[in-house]
Fold:
Amino acid sequence: MSFRKSAKRVFASAMAGLFKRQNISAEQLVVSTAKRILIVRPHNQMGDMICATPAFRAIRETYPDADITLICAPINHDAVRCNPHVNRVIVFDKRKCRNPVHLFNHVKSLRAIRPDLAFVLNSVSYSVTSTALAVASGASLIVGNESASFGFDITSKIYSLELPSFPEIDCNAVLHNLAPLQAVGISTADLSTVVVSSVEEIELANKYLADISTGCPVWVLHPGAGKAENSWPVERFADIADRAVQHGATLVVLQGPADVEVISRFKELVTAKVNYMSVTTVGVCGSILQQSERFICNDTGLMHLAGAVGVPSIALFGKTDPAIWGPINPVVGCLRGNQGILNNLEIDFVWNCWLELPIREDIK
Structure:
């Protein structure tokens, strides 16, 4: 841990007692008549945010008439801005908030919400910043994951009710995100993740698909990944692309901001005519996937998007465990290399699995 983080935690622990909220039991929480709820989750992993959407559903089902505001990081805004379980989304840009004026305006916007209840939801780490945002909002009650499991005591001095923390993930990420809420009686029977596109994003996706239309089914491929160890060799993706076009598909290759080198190499290797699409927003990408017959990708955030919109997909895993990080939607098939080595996934095996995905009857 860096000196800066250590100092922040020590200072936060020392100051925590000044912001203690009224205690509340789990039973009182569930029957609370909170009218304005704040959910604080400014983490920067899109896949993990998508996996948290059933937790948002659980809060909505428990408080159906509440006005719910979600705080998220800039990178996740597109994934949740049309989420049906929240009324609005506020972006917390940590970098910009280093400017006192920006920080003051952000706190002012939080105070304007006047939340009765704030949920601070963590996953595999504890965030002092998240707790600070809940406190700054002026929420009467604050509920969230306890911090003692992460080696320091802050939340017991502030929160109205501490939720259990699970630093080690031993179940699917969706269940892991939901478990702390379930422990106090906030749950949902619907574990599906959700990402909703705006009307404008759907129109942009439709225009793109109309422009590349050949009358053949649209198949989508994404050869990139945020981590090098999660990347199946690009030459194998190029081979899969050539086979798809030869099979009669209209192939779309997605490229994100971090995929410049991978896409450049992919273009050198692929021989068939393929279509490239820069991912402008998560909603546009989601709408294209929703209208496609099948998708193939590495273990990335777009994999979780595919699970949320329900496109039959193949996701390729190596070191990470698909039982934990694979989408909970059964339309996404997860293939893992022998001994957890991604390169052990052979081209013919991957191609046959992708080819054998069921043909969608719900798209034109």
